[in-house]
Design a protein that fits this description.
Blueprint lengths: L6 H25 L5 H16 L16 H21 L4 H8 L2 H13 L5 H18 L7 H24 L4 H20 L9 H27 L2 H7 L2 H14 L5 H23 L2
Length: 285
């Protein structure tokens, strides 16, 4: 029988992805106030780790697993992805950044097939190819393309790798451990860059945005860990496309950024590809 995807999973993905976009929107507002993307990335990990560690239920027996190379690799992927996307958001509209970022589901799909031996179908592969074409419309690669879009693509590659690594480890570790591990390890990995870009001063509004960036991102990624524990990456990956809707809406409401016509077409193509992937997953294809 075709696997059924509960509506609760869809709802959780929508909440998770919207929460992550809210964290990135807060990060973009911080960069517009001359705050370094490296400090924002580091503070996101460090603050979330400090707040959530007492609630993590971490045991002494679990501590050695923080040095497991697979756990460190997964944390490095998300640390690299967040640093890259915040760097991209410094100069590029949020909707365009997320359009380029959606190379991630293509990477996750390919890695899940190659490394996790998950099922491949022609229809799903064709839809992801269409989604990749949409990414190209948004990025519009050329000799004059700004470095921001390059960082957005790098963020997508890191995120796709992170999604696959999460699925890889989900059966071996509990969700709260994985979330805590990525926060602690990410804070350590980013500390050299983050601590060298400390802001000289900041208003309460700035520090409020730092807190929002940390908590929204941590909450969203925790939900994704829970989802990936029981849902194959080839099914959950298309649902991540809901981030495009949140990014487009927040881009207009918060920053007044309207994508140009070619980028708008690309975003629509990417979203339709994701919805098509979701429909295939519902039918078990």
């Amino acid at each position: 029988m075709p696997p059924q995807i509960p509506l609760s999973v869809v709802a959780l993905v929508c909440v998770a992805t919207t929460s992550i976009v809210m964290g990135d929107a807060a990060g973009k507002l911080l960069t517009q106030n001359a705050i370094s993307p490296f400090f924002i990335a580091w503070s996101r990990f460090a603050l979330a780790a400090a707040l959530l560690l007492p609630l993590s239920g971490m045991t002494r027996a679990e501590l050695p697993h923080l040095l497991n190379w697979r756990v460190i690799l997964r944390a490095a992927f998300i640390a690299g992805g967040i640093s890259s996307i915040l760097t991209a958001l410094k100069t590029e509209p949020i909707a365009n950044v997320y359009g380029a970022f959606f190379i991630g589901p293509v990477v996750a799909y390919a890695l899940s097939i190659l490394l996790l031996k998950e099922r491949v179908t022609r229809a799903r592969s064709a839809l992801l190819a269409v989604g990749f074409a949409g990414v190209l419309l948004v990025v519009q690669p050329s000799a004059t393309m700004g470095p921001g879009m390059g960082f957005a693509l790098l963020a997508g590659v890191c995120y796709g790798s992170y999604l696959t690594a999460t699925r890889w480890l989900a059966g071996a570790y509990r969700p709260r451990f994985l979330l805590t591990a990525q926060l602690v390890i990410g804070a350590v990995l980013l500390a050299p860059l983050g601590l060298t870009h400390l802001p000289g001063s900041g208003s309460p509004a700035i520090w409020g945005l730092v807190l929002l960036s940390a908590l929204a991102s941590a909450f969203g990624n925790f939900l994704l860990v829970v989802i990936n524990r029981t849902t194959p990456a080839t099914i959950s990956a298309p649902l991540i496309y809901f981030q495009l809707v949140a990014a487009a809406v927040l881009g207009v409401l918060v920053f007044g950024d309207w994508p140009d016509m070619l980028s708008l077409i690309g975003l629509a193509v990417i979203l339709l590809s994701g919805l098509g992937g979701f429909a295939l997953a519902r039918r078990g294809k």
